[in-house]
Structures are given as structure tokens and as C-alpha cells.
Design brief:
Helices cover 12% and strands 38% of the residues. It has 96 residues and is mostly beta strands. A hairpin with a 7-residue loop joins β3 and β4. The longest helix is centred in the C-terminal third of the chain and has 12 residues. The protein is globular, with a radius of gyration of 14 Å.
Length: 96
């Protein structure tokens, strides 16, 4: 089975024109209840009201009906390297 690409970042309402969005990790995270589950972790640097780095988890499956967006981490300032490290470390934890 081939991997579907992630939700296109422009369709995820996370960023404004001055912000940066980067795909960090993602792919199949199938469970017994959601065999088609996919998860994608994006890092965003928001520059609208100060500078903040956020990690977002986007979950897709037919059971959910539409992508769910979860804010997982907030860091003050532009801290993309730290966000990448933390995203990769936590993405490999088992799905509950």
C-alpha cells in the first residue's frame, strides 16, 4: 500500500502570510479502530504577535471525517531545531 501525502499545508489554517510551516514527520499510524489512520507533525513559526514556535499534530482517518489539528507544543521565539528534535522523539511513541 502506498503512503498518501499529508494534508497540504495551505489547506490547514495554521499560518498567516509571515509565518513558516514545515512538515517534520508523518505517515501511517494504524490502530485496530482506525486502520487508515495517518498522522503528520508540522512545526510552525508564527510571527504575528511576537515570535512563537508551535508543533501541530494533524490526524486523518475516515472515522474522523476530516483532519483534526492538535496543538502539541508552544515555545517562545524561533526555535525550529528544538521543535524538530522534540517532534521526532515524541512521534515514535505508541498511539493510544
Amino acid at each position: 500500500m502506498s503512503e498518501r501525502p499529508p494534508v497540504v499545508p495551505t489547506t490547514v489554517p495554521l499560518c498567516g502570510p509571515a509565518d513558516t510551516l514545515e512538515l517534520i514527520a508523518g505517515g501511517s499510524r494504524a490502530t485496530a479502530r482506525e486502520p487508515d489512520r495517518r498522522e503528520w507533525i508540522f512545526a510552525a513559526i508564527h510571527r504575528g504577535h511576537g515570535t512563537w514556535t508551535h508543533l501541530y499534530l494533524v490526524v486523518e482517518s475516515a472515522r474522523r471525517g476530516r483532519p483534526e489539528i492538535h496543538l502539541c507544543l508552544t515555545l517562545e521565539g524561533e526555535r525550529l531545531d528544538e521543535a524538530r528534535r522534540r517532534a521526532v522523539a515524541s512521534w515514535w511513541r505508541p498511539v493510544s
